[in-house]
Amino acid sequence: MNKYLASLLTLTFACGQGADATGPRTATTDLVTSNGENLNGENLNGENLNGENLNGTSFTGPGMPVNVAYALFDGASVNGRTLDSAWLEGTVFHGMRNGHELSGLDFDNSSFQASLLDGTPLSLRVVDIDREDFPNSDVWSYLVQFRAGNGTWHPLCMDANNNAVYAIALDGRWNYGRGVPTGGDHVDDPSAFTFACKGLGAIAKCVFPIGYKPWETVNGVSLAPYHQACTRALRADYCGDGNSWTVNGRKIDLWDGIGVQQSSRPFWLFEAEWTDGSAACVTTQRVIDLRNVLGTVSRCILSRVSLTCGFQSHFQRGTLLMNRYQSPGISLF
Fold first, then answer.
1. Does one domain contain both 149 and 255?
2. Rounded CA gap, 30 and 67, in Å?
3. 127 with 85, same domain?
């Protein structure tokens, strides 16, 4: 056993004792959510356009049957007519054609060009548009299909029962790499946007239902870094390198210092503090749990262990989010 880890395992669990969830809150949402390893429902095994995985088995979801990296505004069309320009305002598409602006429901029957992770071009089309109810009526979602090599169209996002799932459109793109310095990063690219599969990955979940809408501000504070920190937390991307240290469906209690989310499970175990780049700190108990499950813990995670992890004052020192997790095999509310 690593000597550093051995010493950590003998410490009395003090991490998070200072985490005070009773501070002033304005949140209207009290949410316990499930996390998972996918960033955007991507099937990292890879899949060909003929519907066959590279390992020879059929795609059975949930996720993307093709690994779309991002889509492009350039070349966007509506009803078969190419737009002069296109852009997003929040999650709503806008475009110009011959001096006339199109927006919102106008983009039903729109088409975009996309790129797979390996750079292969791909055609996408929107066949339906949906909108969440108030107070999330600024979240629009799109039923997107991709064109296979034989010309047939298939859902871009599918659930575990192979039912089509809507996607939220967000500005920029993400790095889907794992174990690399920029893995999991959001990339500000004005030429590109991302279709984030609803409920199938951290990108979409952190927008809705969690509420970190990157186009919004709260008391003058941009939610963009909070959204990115949320994608790290939901995937347990402690090192900020795209590697996930969780399993799908694991329950977490996530909160912040600006009132979007508040803690609702004070008896769960404190896990980590989060910035938009990685975990700011991790508790000893989480390291113990990881070692029990995986048999090993990376040096990167060990370097983030802190006995003061979870102190509420850390929200004033750069921490954006904190989270607790449900003790394995024990349900404490």
1. no
2. 33
3. yes
Sign of the Cα pseudo-torsion (75, 79, 83, 88, in order): negative
pTM over the 0.90 mark: no
75 and 14 in a single domain? The answer is no
* 227 & 193 share domain: no
Do residue 189 and residue 211 come from a single domain?
Answer: no
Q: Are 31 and 166 in the same domain?
A: no
Q: Which two tokens stand for residue 137?
A: 């009526």
Asked if 246 and 236 touch (Cβ cutoff 8 Å), the reply is yes
* Number of folded domains that form the chain: 2
Count Cα neighbours of 7 within 13 Å in the Cβ-side half-sphere: 7
Determine contact, residues 71/64, Cβ cutoff 8 Å: no
Helix (H) or strand (E) holding 115: strand 110-116
In sequence order, what DSSP letters do the residues of 137-205 get, joined into one string? TT-EEEEEEEE-TTS-EEESSB-TTS-B--EEEEESEE---SSSTTTT-EE--TTEEEEEETTTSHHHH
Per-residue pLDDT of the chain (333 residues; tens, 9 = 90+): 444 444 443 333 333 333 333 333 334 445 777 666 677 755 433 222 222 222 223 344 578 888 899 999 999 999 999 999 999 999 999 999 999 999 999 999 999 999 998 999 999 999 999 999 999 999 999 999 999 989 999 999 998 888 999 999 999 999 998 899 999 999 999 999 999 999 888 999 999 999 999 999 999 999 999 999 999 999 999 999 999 898 777 889 999 999 999 999 999 999 999 999 999 999 999 999 999 888 889 999 999 999 999 999 999 999 999 999 987 665 545
Domain extent, residue 121, equals 39-200
Rounded to the nearest angstrom, the gap between the alpha carbon of residue 254 and the centroid of all alpha carbons in its chain is 14
